[in-house]
Amino acid sequence: AAKGPYLQGIKAVIAESFERIHRSNLAGMGIVPLQFQDGESVDALGLTGHEQFSIDLEGELKPMQSVTVTTSTGKSFTTTLRFDTAVEVQYFKNGNILQYVLKNKLDQ
Length: 108
Fold this sequence. Notes:
The chain is α+β, with helices and mostly antiparallel strands and 108 residues long. 35% of the residues lie in helices and 22% in strands.
C-alpha cells in the first residue's frame, strides 16, 4: 500500500485521517504521514492540489507532534505528525524500516 508512493518519490502524505494499517505502512516506508487538524481539510484550506508543499521537520521529531506545512502560494497550516511511536520516528530517520533493520544488524 505504501510501496507505490515510495517508488514514485513521495515524501509525505497529508490526510484527514488514516486507516491504522495504511498509516503504519507509510511510516515503515519512510513516508511522513501528516494529519489535518480537526476541522481542517483540503476544502476548508482552499487547497487545489497544484501547490508544492514545504514541511518543517527540523529539530527533534517526536510522535504526534505538530508540524507546520507551507504551500507555494504562501498559505501555512498546522498538521499532526502521525508517527505514533518512537520506533516509527527511527524508521524515518534511517530512510525506512528495511534500512533501520539492516543498520541495527550491522551495529551488533
